[in-house]
């Protein structure tokens, strides 16, 4: 599990600063203001506004308060700032889940196991039971509850458009119990029938592909730039760099091209179910 980071240590929490800066930039652009004009409203130089928006400078609380008022954010920037500085602990993964709830489109790829958005309770418990260092039962219960709660986005009002691509290895790898995997595949087939979900699978027969290095997700928003999320061994990372996000989009396009179409992917899932 990713190491937890004290958000009051904001100078070293670059991914949170990047998110805050991105929100300020989007609201400034939507308001039709230049950095110079926002600087005039917040008593800051355009250079400082630029640094805050790029996530390289920690803003003062007074700047946040003035920017919130000057951009007509109705308290949103102040609430975000308090969430970042109230002493709570947040991991990049927890922040990703927060962003996931706001996204209008989700693109996930998982090469090795069923992704959290598709997991049944039993499968999720089997995954968390393998965590190192081991998790206590109370922590597993809480983690499973949070994971299952994420799935409400599939059927909420105005749900996001969701694309999920799996390698066949994720479908064929058992969690140690045939019944758990049977229920898991049936659950995925049900999710795949939702009108806002496209579930694809890359068969073993395709051979090597560009996604074998690990899980990735791309989030798109109606009013802002896309961001990415990856999970190297050291823990999750949120990606805002537009060059890297563009590379992730290109990789996802290649994975989509390598995958079977929805009907063929459903057949692969049903065949895996028969083979259990």
Provide the fold topology.
Layout: E1 5-6, H1 14-30, H2 35-42, H3 46-53, H4 61-70, H5 76-85, E2 89-90, H6 92-102, E3 105-110, H7 121-128, H8 137-150, E4 161-167, H9 168-172, H10 178-192, E5 197-202, E6 216-221, E7 224-230, E8 237-239, H11 242-258, H12 262-275
Parallel strand pairs: 3-4, 4-5
Antiparallel strand pairs: 1-2, 3-6, 6-7, 7-8
Helix pairs in contact: 1-5, 2-3, 4-5, 7-8, 10-12
Explain this structure.
By secondary structure, the chain is of the alpha/beta class. It has 2 domains: 5-89, lambda repressor-like DNA-binding domains (434 Repressor (Amino-terminal Domain)); 91-275, Endonuclease, Chain A (2-Layer Sandwich), CATH 3.30.870. Helix content is 50%, strand content 14%. It has helices spanning 14-30, 35-42, 46-53, 61-70, 76-85, 92-102, 121-128, 137-150, 168-172, 178-192, 242-258, 262-275; strands spanning 5-6, 89-90, 105-110, 161-167, 197-202, 216-221, 224-230, 237-239. The protein has a 6-stranded mixed beta sheet with strand order 5-4-3-6-7-8, with helices on both faces. It has a two-stranded antiparallel ribbon with strand order 1-2. It is elongated. The two termini are 30 Å apart.
Q: How many helices in DSSP terms?
A: 12
Order of helices and strands: EHHHHHEHEHHEHHEEEEHH
Main sheet overview: 6 strands, mixed
The tally of structural domains comes to 2
Ranges where pLDDT stays below 50 over 5 or more residues in a row are: 1-12
CATH topology of the largest domain: Endonuclease, Chain A
Radius of gyration: 21 Å
Mean pLDDT across all amino acids: 90
**Fraction of residues in β-strands:** 5-15%
Could you give the order of strands across the largest sheet?
Answer: 5-4-3-6-7-8
CA-based shape: elongated
CATH top-level class of the largest domain: Alpha Beta
Oligomerization: single chain
Report the count of strand segments: 8
Helix-strand makeup class: alpha/beta
CATH architecture of the largest domain: 2-Layer Sandwich
Question: What is the CA-CA span between the terminal residues?
Answer: 30 Å
Query: Considering DSSP H and I runs of 4 or more, what fraction of the residues is helical?
Result: 40-55%
